[in-house]
Write a structure and sequence with these properties.
The protein is α+β, with helices and mostly antiparallel strands. It has 3 domains: about 5-190, 2-Layer Sandwich (Beta-Lactamase), CATH 3.30.450.40; about 190-305; about 315-500, Heat Shock Protein 90, CATH 3.30.565. About 50% of the residues lie in helices and about 20% in strands. The protein is built from 13 helices and 13 strands. The strands form 3 sheets. Strands 3-2-1-6-5-4 form a 6-stranded antiparallel beta sheet, sandwiched between helices. A 5-stranded mixed beta sheet has the order 8-10-11-13-12.
C-alpha cells in the first residue's frame, strides 16, 4: 500500500471515529434533556422549582451558575431568586435592562463571551449577588401561547467560551423550563382557588352560628311560655322546627370538622345548608304565633331582597341626580362617620336601566367603599360618558385588598379579613365585614343585564397582610404624619360600565 492509499484509509477511519463520537455525544445530551424534563416538570413548588432548574441547568451546561428571570407584567420588571451570602434573595431589574432585558425585549437568544466589554451587560446584578460573570448565554422563555414570560441564563462555562452548540442545547432546556414554570403557576392558582373555597365555607360557618343560636333561644322561650299557659296545639310545629334546627347545627358542626381536617362520616355540599335553612324558615312560617311568623317573614324577605328583582322596569334615569340622592342617603346612614364623599358627575347623562337594579349595584359598591375607608378619609365617585358607554367609579383610599384576596372578590361571601378577626358590625361602619353579598350581587346582575363590573386595588403598604389591622382613623395611624400619606398608601376602585346603545349587542 503506497502512502496515498495509507492516508486515505486513515482519514476514513478517523472520520468514522469522529462521527461515532458526535453520535454518542448527541445521544448523551438527549438523555440528559429527557432526565432534566422529568425532574423539573414533577416539581410544583415555585421556590423549589427555581433551585431545581438552576442545579440541573448547571449540570447539563457545565456552568458555574444559571438564573431564571420571570417577567412581572404589573411592575414591568424581571425578577429572579439568586444566591447572596448564605441565603436566596429576590433581585428585580427593569425589563429592558441588561442581557436578560435585551433578550426579553427582542425575544432572541444571545451569547456573550466577554460580558464586561458588552454595553448590554448590567453589572449591578453581579454587585447585588456577589458573583462575577465572565460569559453568558441567555434564552427567552416562551410559553405555549407564544408569549415570552422571562429568560433563562447560563453563566461562566467551566471549559472556555460558549459555542453555538451550547446555545442550541440551552434552547432545548428552555422549552422544559417554560412548561415547568407554567405548571407551577397553574398549581399556585389552584391553591388560591382552594383557599377561596375554604374561606367561603369558613365564612358561612361563622355566619350560621349567631342566627342559629338566636332561633334556638326563640324556640326554647316559645316552648316554655306555651307550657306555662298549658297550650299544646303548637307542640308539633315547635318540635318540627327544633328537628330542622338540629339538622342545621349538625351541618355546621361538620363544616367545622372539615375545616379542621377532622374525619366526618359524610361531606354534603355546602349548598345543603342554604337549602336546609330555606326549608326550615318555610316550615316554621306555616305554624306558630304571630310575632314568631313576623320574624321569619322578615328573614325570608331579607334573603330575597339580596338577589331577586320581581319585575324589570327599564326607564331613563338622570345619572347625576340618581347618584346625588344615593350619596345623600349613604351619608344619612353613616351615623356620624367622618368621611368626605367627593362627587364628580358629568351633567345630563341619561341611562336606560331598572332603577332598583342600579340602586342595588351602585349602593352596594358605595357601601363597600365606606366600610373599607377609615375615618378622616375620602371616597371619590365619578360618572362620565364616552363613545363606548357610561362609566361609574367608586374610589376609596382605604386599606385596599391583598393580591391573593383580589382573586376572590367576586367569588361570593367574601370578606377581606381573616375569619378570626372578622366581626359583623353595623352597615357603613369601618371594617363592618359583611358577607360580600353586595359584590356577588353586583357581579350577578352585570352578567344578567349586560353591563360590566371591574376593580383594581392596592393593599396599604403599612398593613400588607389580612391580619394587619388599621386603627380606623387616619390620625391614629402610627405609620404616617399626614392624610396624604394614607391616600397614597393603598385603596380600591370599583367601576361599573354600561355599554353604549351602538356598541351593545
Amino acid at each position: 500500500m503506497d502512502s496515498s492509499e495509507q492516508q486515505y484509509v486513515e482519514e476514513r477511519c478517523y472520520g468514522r471515529r469522529k462521527e461515532d463520537w458526535v453520535l454518542r455525544d448527541l445521544m448523551y445530551r438527549h438523555k440528559q434533556l429527557l432526565s432534566f424534563g422529568q425532574i423539573i416538570t414533577s416539581e410544583m413548588n415555585m421556590e423549589v422549582l427555581f433551585e431545581v432548574i438552576m442545579v440541573q441547568t448547571n449540570q447539563i451546561m457545565d456552568t458555574q451558575r444559571s438564573t431564571v428571570f420571570l417577567h412581572d407584567d404589573e411592575s414591568r420588571e424581571l425578577w429572579a431568586l439568586v444566591a447572596t451570602s448564605m441565603k436566596r434573595n429576590e433581585i428585580r431589574i427593569p425589563d429592558d435592562y441588561g442581557v436578560a432585558g435585551w433578550v426579553f425585549q427582542h425575544n432572541t437568544p444571545l451569547t456573550i463571551n466577554d460580558v464586561y466589554n458588552d454595553p448590554r451587560f448590567y453589572s449591578e446584578v453581579d454587585k447585588k449577588s456577589g458573583f462575577r460573570t465572565n460569559n453568558i448565554i441567555c434564552i427567552p422563555l416562551i410559553n405555549k401561547k407564544g408569549k415570552c414570560i422571562g429568560t433563562l441564563q447560563a453563566l461562566n462555562r467551566n471549559s472556555g467560551d460558549f459555542t453555538d452548540d451550547d446555545r442550541e442545547l440551552l434552547t432545548s432546556v428552555s422549552h422544559y423550563v417554560a412548561v415547568a414554570l407554567e405548571n407551577a403557576k397553574l398549581y399556585e392558582d389552584l391553591k388560591v382557588l382552594d383557599k377561596a373555597k375554604e374561606r367561603v365555607i369558613n365564612h358561612l360557618s361563622h355566619e350560621l352560628k349567631t342566627p342559629m343560636a338566636i332561633i334556638s333561644g326563640v324556640l326554647g322561650r316559645v316552648s316554655r311560655e306555651l307550657k306555662k299557659e298549658n297550650i299544646t296545639a303548637l307542640d308539633k310545629a315547635i318540635n318540627r322546627g327544633q328537628r330542622n334546627l338540629n339538622r342545621l347545627m349538625d351541618l355546621q358542626s361538620k363544616i367545622d370538622d372539615i375545616l379542621n381536617q377532622k374525619p366526618v362520616e359524610e361531606k354534603e355540599r355546602i349548598i345543603n345548608i342554604i337549602e336546609g335553612a330555606a326549608g326550615f324558615v318555610e316550615e316554621l312560617s306555616e305554624e306558630g304565633n304571630k310575632q314568631h311568623s313576623e320574624i321569619l317573614d322578615a328573614i325570608s324577605r331579607r334573603i330575597e331582597s339580596l338577589f331577586v328583582v320581581d319585575e324589570i322596569h327599564m326607564e331613563k334615569i338622570q345619572l347625576d341626580e340618581f347618584l346625588d340622592a344615593m350619596c345623600d342617603e349613604a351619608i344619612s346612614l353613616m351615623r356620624g362617620r367622618d368621611l368626605e364623599i367627593v362627587r364628580n358627575f358629568e351633567k345630563k347623562i341619561a341611562l336606560n336601566m331598572d332603577r332598583d337594579i342600579l340602586k342595588k349595584v351602585c349602593g352596594g359598591l358605595l357601601k363597600n367603599a365606606v366600610e373599607n375607608m377609615p375615618d378622616e378619609g375620602k371616597i371619590e365617585i365619578r360618572a362620565g360618558s364616552g363613545e363606548d358607554g357610561i362609566l361609574i367609579e367608586f374610589h376609596d383610599y382605604g386599606v385596599g385588598i391583598t393580591p391573593q384576596n383580589q382573586e376572590m372578590v367576586f367569588g361570593g361571601f367574601f370578606h377581606t379579613q381573616d375569619t378570626d378577626f372578622y366581626s359583623s358590625k353595623r352597615p357603613y361602619e369601618f371594617n363592618a365585614g359583611g358577607s360580600g353579598s353586595d359584590l356577588l350581587r353586583a357581579k350577578a346582575f352585570s352578567e344578567r343585564y349586560g353591563f360590566s363590573v371591574d376593580f383594581n386595588s392596592s393593599r396599604c403598604k403599612f398593613i400588607p397582610g389580612d391580619s394587619d389591622m388599621c386603627p380606623g382613623r387616619i390620625s391614629a395611624c402610627e405609620f404616617i404624619t399626614d392624610k396624604s400619606e394614607c391616600f397614597e398608601s393603598g385603596g380600591s376602585a370599583f367601576s361599573v360600565k354600561f355599554p353604549s346603545t351602538k356598541s351593545a349587542k
